[in-house]
Amino acid sequence: MIINNKNSVLLVIDMQNSFLHPDGTMWKLGFDCSKLRDALPGTEELINKARLQGIPIIFTQYVYQQDFKDGGWLVDEISPELKKIKLCVKDSWDADIYESVYPQNNEAVIEKNRPSAFISTQLESFLYSMSIENIFVCGVTANMCVETTVRDACQRDFRVFVAKDAIAEVDDDRMKVALMAMEYFFAKVNSVKEILELWKK
Questions:
Q1: Of 197, 191, 184, whose CA–CA distance to 165 is shortest?
Q2: Which member of 11, 40, 119, 161 has the greatest number of CB atoms within 10 A?
Q3: CA nearest 144: which of 181, 189, 183?
Q4: Is the pTM of this model over 0.90?
Q5: Who's near 23: CB < 8 A, 6+ residues apart?
Q6: Count of domains observed in the chain
């Protein structure tokens, strides 16, 4: 497979303190968020190599307004506990991107308040303006924001590649199902090593 790096982007999904740091709010819900840290080494490697290769990087950041009026059905009725624990409030430390994968000054950060990075954001405009054809995806969580974004990207006719060892989920079964679903119909699922080989070509 031939990949044109000039038409490629690395999309880093929601690598934030809330999900990755032991003091993050997501941990307070009782999830084993230590599993999410499995995404860190691969994501760090992809970011470093993308910068060296000149491949642009776009970060997504899950944020809610202080009053959570932008939370919708998800916050109001499905998971009202997100409001109670103040998950990913805009401009908070909790919502900030984790230190080891922090964006550089020239790298775009797309704020979102839904699992898909395409819903009510500028992501699609960014991708078209950059003439992007190939989206390489890493981040958390596999079964939620990663998979939802991957599905939406595929349905917009982008070529999507998921780094299976640079994504993570709080539950092993959900991780397995997410990988199966994405590989079945929505993306090429590769290892970080395989993606780096594609970038070299």
A1: 191
A2: 11
A3: 181
A4: yes
A5: 17
A6: 1
